[in-house]
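input
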Amino acid sequence: MTRLLNHSFSLLVITVSAVFVIFPNQAIAQDKDGVFAKRNLVAWCIVPFDAKKRGPAERAEMLVRLGIQNVAYDWRAEHVPTFEEEIVQYKKHDLNYLAFWSWHDSMEPLIKKYNIHPQIWVMMRNSTADSQDARIADAIEGLLPLVEKTRELGCKLSIYNHGGWAGEPANMVDVVKALREKHNAAHVGIVYNFHHGHEHIADFAVQFESMLPYLFCLNINGMDDAEIVASGKNKILPLGGGTHERQMMKIVKDSGYAGPIGILDHRESTDSEESLRENLQGLDGLLKAGL
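output
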């Protein structure tokens, strides 16, 4: 009987170990009802930043392997001829085309043809006008053509922070509020990026609260001290590789935000699959540590 029990226990250990090997991101799976659930994650900066220079089919297959269902598509001029094939491959592999970077006129007929409605992520003008009211008006003037275009296409328009006046949460909120109030633009909001917000770490709770009613997507990153990043180091880190992202992500989780969460490559010298996997493993560690 003792030998039988020992044998059964050994089989149990082997089975549990096998399950762990097959499903290495268990904390992510266990967060199935939370904002950091794997089904809620979005792959970002995986096209021009992929060291392997994958095409649409290879990229879709990579995302299936990783179990990431949502994609935000960034591009350069050389990718324009494959815009349609990218959509085709995402549909073939049951992936969600969540967002498209900036704008290109060739996307309009494709959006209509394939009945997709990606968020359009765009930076607003870094205005140099003399007053805040004038800077807001200038930013709105630059955005209005896309405000109307995205309204017609049934797409959300998300203002993307990328430094300067245009990347400050207070200014982004002011512009979005003005567009909603004066231009009937409820489809306009914000996509906020940790990796372009190191200067907001100290007061992130306040900044995030101000953006929350308008936030359409949040892209997260390992966050080192702003001073280190300003010296040219560690701007892009995998989750768990920085010193501040855990607290920032706890603020996000506690806020009740339930929108998509982007994880990124953004390193031209790395394989996007490796970068995304690093982020999945880092997120797993943060969740296991009690995020």
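quick obs: The chain has eleven helices and eight strands.
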